[in-house]
Amino acid sequence: MQQKRNIQIIEWEDLDKRKFYSFGVFMTMTIRATVYPATLIRTRLQVQRGKSLYSGTFDAFFKILRTEGVRGLYRGFMVNTFTLISGQAYITTYELVRKYVSQYSKDNTVKSLVAGGSASLVAQSITVPIDVISQQLMMQGQGEHLTRFRLNSNSEKGKPKKVFGQTRNIVSQIFAADGFRGFYRGYVASLLTYIPNSAVWWPFYHFYAEQLSNLAPSDCPHLILQATAGPLAAATASTVTNPMDVVRARVQVEGRSSIIETFRQLIREEGMWGLTKGLSARIISSTPTAIVMVVGYETLKKLSLRPELVDSRHW
């Protein structure tokens, strides 16, 4: 029983870093392309007042598809691909902090919690400006009346479209209105959302994986257990941190400066149910993300094992 319970964890020092980063970029890009429509829908649901635009996740999906086409579900995607940088920063920080904390504690929960929170702090410092821009682009189309910035219509008529033309349009408007600080609007709200989310996700992921290993047959592949544990951890973390995620989205899209006042207004106008806005879309997007990330990440680490360690590991 004891042997069955231990799922092997590949640590940082076991990896061939060149393979790890090469495969990692491809994996991250695939995940983001897969779940981006759900991220866009979640943002619009969180920013809308009540149900003024959409009644729910699936209503939003079909309305956007019908009025804006498939391209409407990928508004802002090109600029969002720059989060590949933050993705690599995240996994590097996570693995390095795990290695550092292991010098002081062998408890996997402690290592995961500290490493997850630290990784999110580093990643969000890179991601927030990209998010601010991509969220403004997400809100164009049906949701443009809910945001401060709109694309100049005259820039799209009679002129050839430029690469990142819409992005530059939005960037110039943000800078003109708020200066450099505008690109870090909602930074604190993002930290209050994603640091707890990451700090909760990793310990619950390992917890669920260990519990499942106790229930599963002894010959059940560890990858299946990990692929099941990932969505469970994602749903748990999403539910815990969704209220702050709603506040973060409104601060960044509507240009608010006070987290507390945004929270109070949300409660005043929409009650406690307002704190659950976009939760179903968030879970829907986080479930495939978690499966692909866990399967991809664990496979990535196995493929990136240093050659001399390959034969010593059994899965």
In brief, what are we looking at here?
The protein is mostly helical and 315 residues long. It has helices at residues 2-5, 17-47, 57-72, 77-80, 83-101, 108-138, 165-178, 187-215, 222-254, 259-270, 279-303.
Please tell me about this protein's structure:
There is one protein chain. The chain is 69% helix and 0% strand. The protein is an all-alpha fold and 315 residues long. The longest helix has 33 residues, at 222-254. The two termini are 16 Å apart.
Structural class computed from helices and strand pairing: mainly alpha
Q: How large is the share of residues in beta strands?
A: under 5%
- The SSE order reads HHHHHHHHHHH
CA-CA gap between termini: 16 Å
Average pLDDT, to the nearest integer? 84
Shape: globular
**Runs with pLDDT <50, length 5+?**
1-5
Helix coverage percent of residues? 55-70%
Largest β-sheet summary: none
The number of E-state strands comes to 0
CA-based gyration radius: 21 Å
How many helices? The count is 11
Write the layout of secondary structure elements.
Elements: H1 2-5, H2 17-47, H3 57-72, H4 77-80, H5 83-101, H6 108-138, H7 165-178, H8 187-215, H9 222-254, H10 259-270, H11 279-303
Helix pairs in contact: 2-11, 5-6, 6-7, 6-8, 8-9, 9-10, 9-11
Subcellular location: Membrane
Solcar repeats: 18-100, 107-211, 221-303
Membrane topology: Multi-pass membrane protein
What distinguishing features does this structure have?
single chain; 69% helix; membrane
